[in-house]
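[worker-b] picked up task from shared queue
[worker-b] task type: protein-ligand structure
[worker-b] ligand name resolved to zinc ion; SMILES cross-checked against name lookup, match
[worker-b] sequence length check passed
[worker-b] input payload:
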Amino acid sequence: MASQPICDHIRSIESVTQPRRHECEECVAIGGRWVHLRTCQACGGTRCCDSSPNQHASKHARASGHHVIASAEPGERWLYCFSAEY
Ligand SMILES: [Zn+2]
Ligand SMILES: [Zn+2]
Ligand SMILES: [Zn+2]
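[worker-b] inference finished, payload out:
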């Protein structure tokens, strides 16, 4: 993902919400596959990244207004904000 300036959405995150399960909750429901997982910092849901066929994390961000996700991949620690994309 492209680097970006740290926005107020990311600045307001005090502790990063960790994934409850290492699976995309929407892919599980439809029998889809995912590449990487991202956890929504607003509702704690874990969904798949933009490299995945269904791109549930970014669809969720657009639909819900939940801008900030964290990587749910083991060993990755970063936050990303979708608000610059729409
Ligand atoms: Zn933002
Ligand atoms: Zn998915
Ligand atoms: Zn959410």
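[worker-b] attaching auto-annotations
[worker-b] The mean pLDDT is 93.
[worker-b] releasing lock
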